[in-house]
Amino acid sequence: MDVRILIFFVISIFANGGFACRFGWTQNGSLCYLFSHGTSTWAEASATCLALNSHLAMITSDTEQSFLIDQLDQLHQTGTSHTRYWIDGTDLEVENVWRWALTGDKLTYTAWADGEPNNAQRGNCMNLYEGGGFKMADDDCELRLHYICQENDGANIIG
Ligand SMILES: [Ca+2]
Ligand SMILES: [Ca+2]
Asked: Which of 69, 108, 113, 120 could form a disulfide with 135 if both were Cys (CB 3.0 to 4.6 A apart)?
């Protein structure tokens, strides 16, 4: 290989933080996201993400929330306003005590859509709701919705 090409690849890898997301996943810093095409219940969506060496998305900062809103806006420019994407938050155990299912940690950052959470129809699972500008909402965990898987650092689950 031409040494100039080799140098180009090495620089590209380091400029990229040393890893790239798998094909089909979208990178934001050290995180990779998969936006599902199909729909599942919250529990099925969680299991699917785990099977893909990832987990339902956890949002811990305004930066992460804003990135997901931008991505979802691009995916749903002609949306119905009813589109929802499951993420990892749940208050299944204790009503209105929201935790990330993967770690059990209480949420330190929230960006609820207007009027949410309202626990309507046993709303115990968290999603990003198009009608609320893709901010957080609670809904019945048995609904079949799109979902967002998240992988950290291209490798480990919790990282
Ligand atoms: Ca609830
Ligand atoms: Ca709700």
From this structure: 113
Distance 129 CA to ligand 2 centre (A): 9
Would the CA dihedral through 112, 114, 119, 124 be positive or negative?
negative
From residue 50, alpha-carbon distances to 16, 19, 112 in Å are: 25, 20, 25
Q: What is the pTM for the complete model shown? A: 0.85
How far does residue 157's CA lie from ligand 1's centre (Å)?
26
Instruction: Fold for 24-152, please state it.
Output: Mannose-Binding Protein A; Chain A (3.10.100)
Distance 20 CA to ligand 2 centre (A): 35
Q: Ligand nearest 91 Cα, by number?
A: 1
Per-residue pLDDT reduced to its tens digit, 40-55: 999 999 999 999 999 9
Output phi, psi for 46, to 5 deg.
-60, -45
